[in-house]
Design goal:
heterodimer; A: mainly alpha; MetI-like fold; 8 helices; 81% helix; elongated; B: Rossmann fold; CBS-domain; EC 7.6.2.9 (chain B); nucleotide-binding (chain B); CBS domain (chain B); ATP binding (chain B); ATP-binding (chain B)
Chain lengths: 213, 419
């Protein structure tokens, strides 16, 4: 095991970095998309219900199946990987964003309008900042989940630690196969922990004292 | 009153800065509803006065209020503020010129007190220095120490303090009109009474046009220069001064709404500043207790009142406490019976009963000490007030379309208000 890592540590570090970078970029993209959709639907009960159902049903889609479907139009490579990771990352964030925006006290919004804030300004200066801690919780859930999803997308030759897992599994019983799988799995877990800590720190920094629990 | 420092903090007062409001045939009909929520209401709100909207819940009083700043768009009719028809202008710009206070303040929980208050000036593009100065000035106005409260968050304030910040935020850009929607509904009775007193004190400084919705008739009598009593569909039952509504209810509906204790309502009609206050010995922390003791003995008083550097009462010290102490200490006594000078005799009596004291300390604008009021003063005032009722004066216009104009305009010899 020690030899395996010692011989390949540059390769492992590079794959870890790629894995991490894929997840973070997709997470940012997913947050923007999810908040945008939440903003469009949260005032309408029917639309918000539909969005919530989609996010619940979407999570039941096996990521492996989805990547298989996407390989047909997009081929192997980074594109299907990014689409799959972003799709799964967006679902919990969407759900939390809708809940967060709907849970704001109506009096707060009324007084924002009452002192002359436009709808747009009310949304960006009052509603999203108040809903932010709930949205960020969604981001953290997503981050944990898509760390694993990102390992699966290696099947489509996407970047990251998934390569170690797949190459290990495909020649199970052969030399270094188990070491390869363990390296991939442990690497993913460590990255997930690091990202969670970072998100926790971001939460601390971006949540005003007035709405900290 | 002997403290010369108070004049430096108070603004020049006496100028009406409010604007008149005229609602002309204003109607609000919600889609899918046959009956109008507000039906053809014409109402004149005189500049610089407090007009109270009262009525049972669902009568359209809040809808009427929200149509003044067009949070609710009227179906038809016109809203004219200071001669300018505002029915067609940009609603957001209109609302920046009208203060708006709702229950519990409606503060933004993620912003500090200062940021909350600075919201409207920021939108109007004021400079940072001007905004900072204005925030401090407003916190002083609502009796909150800027040093202490500027950087707090709403959840770190009591209900009453939140409400005060709400008022400060509404006044931030010095709007001529202030709209209040059940502003004191969410606080306990004692705090409510204080906030009401404070609102009256603030009003005596700023002289805005205030329109306030309440379901509490006593509150309407206490705060209002004029009271509009609404029935369902915002049908105006009576629009007149509190004195006249109490003396001559226009209909059975009004009579029922006022309730039975109209005789004792005299207690709510007379204010503390209309009766003669007793002077007393005042002192400041740090003075020698024995000097103060000989002063009150000389003046024949039971106690001395300790004031802070701004003339605000901190505590009372009776002879026994004085003889034990060496120097006067400046700790604040939270149970001190204090009423504002704009409080009603009802409030004053209430405060004394709660504190089991036979007198209460009266404070003026910005909580500055004014004098003492005693149970006996209250009793004499009720007797005198009951003897001299029945004053007539002009009332502003208010009617619903279709109704016959029954508002008679009588020239009275004197008005019921005092400045």
């Amino acid at each position: 095991m020690g030899d395996f890592i010692g011989e390949r540590y540059r390769q492992i570090l590079f794959a870890s970095w790629q894995h991490f970078s894929l997840v973070v970029q997709c997470l940012i993209l997913a947050t923007v998309i999810a908040v945008l959709i939440a903003v469009l639907v949260y005032r309408n009960k029917t639309l918000a219900g539909i969005a919530n159902s989609i996010s619940a049903v979407g999570l039941t889609v096996p990521s492996f199946a989805l990547i298989g479907l996407l390989i047909v139009p997009f081929g192997f490579g980074v594109t299907p990987a990014v689409i799959v990771v972003t799709f799964f990352a967006a679902l919990p964030i969407l759900r939390n964003a809708i809940v967060g925006l709907n849970n704001i006290e109506p009096t707060v919004v009324e007084s924002a309008r009452g002192i002359g804030m436009s709808r747009f300004k009310t949304l960006f200066a009052v509603e999203i900042p108040i809903a932010w801690p709930v949205i960020l919780t969604g981001v953290r859930i997503s981050a944990q989940m898509v760390m694993g999803v990102a390992a699966v997308v290696a099947f489509a030759l996407g970047p990251g630690l998934g390569g170690f897992i797949f190459s290990g599994l495909s020649r199970l019983g052969g030399a270094n196969s188990l070491e390869s799988v363990v390296t991939g799995v442990v690497g993913v877990v460590i990255l997930a922990l690091i990202l969670d800590l970072i998100l926790l720190g971001i939460g601390r920094l971006t949540t005003p004292r007035g709405i900290r629990v | 009153m002997s403290d010369p420092k108070i004049s430096s903090t108070s603004e020049p007062s006496g100028n009406v800065t409010g604007a008149s409001i005229m609602l002309e045939e204003v109607t609000k009909t919600y889609p899918g509803q046959k009956k109008s929520a507000v039906g053809g209401l014409t109402l004149e709100i005189p500049a610089g006065s407090i007009v109270m909207f009262v009525g049972p819940s669902g009568c359209g009083k809040t809808t009427t209020l929200k149509m003044i700043n067009r949070l609710i768009e009227p179906t038809s009719g016109q809203i004219v503020i200071n001669g300018e028809d505002v029915t067609g202008m940009n609603g957001d710009e209109l609302r920046r010129r009208i203060g708006y206070v709702i229950q519990a303040g409606g503060l933004f929980p993620h912003m500090t007190v200062a940021t909350n208050i600075a919201m409207v000036p920021k939108m109007l593009g004021w400079s940072k220095e001007k905004i900072a100065a204005r925030v401090d000035e407003l916190l002083e106005l609502v009796s909150l120490d800027p040093e202490l409260y500027r950087d707090r968050f709403p959840k770190e304030l009591s209900g009453g303090q939140q409400q005060r910040v709400g008022v400060a935020r509404a006044l931030a850009a010095d709007p001529p009109v202030l709209l209040m929607d059940e502003p004191f509904g969410a606080v306990d009775p004692i705090t409510r009474q204080r906030l009401q007193d404070e609102l009256l004190n603030i009003q005596s400084e700023v002289q805005k046009t205030i329109v306030c919705v309440t379901h509490d008739f006593d509150e309407a009598v206490k705060l209002g220069d004029w009271i509009a009593i609404f029935n369902e569909g915002a049908q105006l039952e009576q629009y007149d001064s509190p004195e006249r509504i109490l003396a001559n209810p226009a209909s059975e509906f009004v009579e029922n709404f006022i309730g039975s204790g109209a005789g004792l309502k005299q207690l709510t009609l007379t204010r503390v500043n209309e009766v003669e206050l007793l002077g007393t010995v005042t002192t400041t922390p740090g003075k020698r207790a024995s000097d103060v003791l000989s002063q009150i003995q000389g003046a024949g008083r039971k106690f001395a009142v300790v004031l802070d550097s701004r003339g605000r009462p901190l505590r009372r010290l009776d002879r026994r406490q004085l003889s034990r102490a060496e120097i006067i200490e400046g700790t604040y006594d939270p149970d001190l019976p204090v009423v504002g000078e704009q409080a009603t005799l009802n409030d004053a009596l209430d405060t004394m009963l709660v504190a089991s004291a036979e007198s209460a300390i009266v404070t003026g604008p910005r909580d500055v000490f004014k004098g003492l009021i005693t149970v006996q003063t209250v009793m004499e005032a009720i007797a005198a007030a009951n003897a001299s009722m029945d004053q007539d004066h002009e009332a502003p216009v208010g009617l619903n379309s279709g109704a016959i104009n029954v508002v008679d305009i009588e020239q009275g010899s004197s008005s019921g208000e005092s400045a």
